[in-house]
What we know:
- The protein has 26 helices and 17 strands.
Amino acid sequence: xxxxxxxxxxxxxxxxxxxxxxxxxxxxxxxxxxxxxxxxxxxxxxxxxxxxxxxxxxxxxxxxxxxxxxxxxxxxxxxxxxxxxxxxxxxxxxxxxxxxxxxxxxxxxxxxxxxxxxxxxxxxxxxxxxxxxxxxxxxxxxxxxxxxxxxxxxxxxxxxxxxxxxxxxxxxxxxxxxxxxxxxxxxxxxxxxxxxxxxxxxxxxxxxxxxxxxxxxxxxxxxxxxxxxxxxxxxxxxxxxxxxxxxxxxxxxxxxxxxxxxxxxxxxxxxxxxxxxxxxxxxxxxxxxxxxxxxxxxxxxxxxxxxxxxxxxxxxxxxxxxxxxxxxxxxxxxxxxxxxxxxxxxxxxxxxxxxxxxxxxxxxxxxxxxxxxxxxxxxxxxxxxxxxxxxxxxxxxxxxxxxxxxxxxxxxxxxxxxxxxxxxxxxxxxxxxxxxxxxxxxxxxxxxxxxxxxxxxxxxxxxxxxxxxxxxxxxxxxxxxxxxxxxxxxxxxxxxxxxxxxxxxxxxxxxxxxxxxxxxxxxxxxxxxxxxxxxxxxxxxxxxxxxxxxxxxxxxxxxxxxxxxxxxxxxxxxxxxxxxxxx
Length: 583
Ligand code: DGT
Ligand code: CA
Ligand code: CA
């Protein structure tokens, strides 16, 4: 029982309770617990096993932000017994095929309950059929428009079905590598495929191994704790389902390791281009090596592949055939941003809105990451569900920030807490705080949180109107997508970028792994248009601030960003001077 298994149990509890119509706050608490546990660096099992009693364990567990007493007791039960009585009773009450319906965009638990009760619908096929025959429109609360939306949602769901956000697959792949690394015969082991390219969603996990004893590796792989089904088992390749995700493992000979690593890292489009360059030079390049006629001329190292076609090493994140080969030929590959380039986080929440930690706790966590500043950007009042601040709360927070900064200064600590807000852009284009209030803040972040279905022109103008406000410095999660749940809202992103450029407004890359918004290709577009980017976490507690940033950095790298394209690689003073509203 590892943290990820526990997180999956809470996800399922949340899904089933939602369909059953349980209290939405409780549903949200389960989901929040799942997200917290997923990125936790502490091992829940050892916390429980270390404790002398249940009460002792609960006391320890509730110290983790996002874990209350009810959740802590469930964790205790899960670790001790391997089961959750809550989950088991829910499973017996809710038809499991209804759970899949919940994954369809635009289909919520209320709709599911209704169509199930009135039409007996319990599968996607039945729902699709009913929508096509306009049977749904006869149910109260649903109409022709709802039918159209549901059909679109089904189409969307089928397109991305089977793909998971990277943050779900990467920890599993890392766990597999960790387990197999300890085998005596394993000489080398790497993660390849879309995971090595840090794509935002992952179809399956690909792992490569060099070993003189392939059958030992295959035996261990197919028997790993977490393997739910063995799909194929051979001498060179095996495939399994590992905690719900497909995983391929290949054992290759040492002389092919570089060529295989390149080949199985992909992308397919990139590989095809490299192979064509090889053909022009009379070379055959494949997963076994680099060949001239029958003669092997390389393939042990990945660099050999690029060198064979006169290219410098191309970082995996760029291998999408988005122009990286031409750039490499011209000696114009970007110097990609790295984690160590970051000097601060410009979007974190605190307990002044929906964050778990105090300002001081967030600041200390940032200091331990080597940052020089954070911008605490709590929600504004319109986002009531997130405990948005009113003017009075904002003033109170301001005092606390000032006191804290004075303490840092007198202690000789080079760190500043910036006073920021994530101000809501309302559907009537107005911002949720007056200009007088925004003027006095260090950093103003604006974002849309409601009425996401306005038409394309309205949404575009709504964001641009915020960009044109004299005090808005950054637009957060500019397209609003949530991976696997919500597509980007209908938006003319090019016009938004042009307006950001003309007004000196920064666009945010939100590192949260189910957002990654701006996405990779949008980062590249922004760079080409001279729009600056802030890579932020949007963290709601200190653990998240530490854990999710790697996904933001990876997405920035996929978007070709260099340190100079990103504002929070600058020192405090330089960063502030790049914002529109100078202080
Ligand atoms: P995914 O799993 O859908 O997220 O994406 P990938 O890129 O991991 O794709 P996958 O797992 O199907 O295959 C791994 C790599 O193997 C892929 O990135 C490139 C290489 N590959 C697979 N099929 C072909 C092919 O037909 N031609 C070439 N040139 N490469 C291939
Ligand atoms: Ca793959
Ligand atoms: Ca694969």
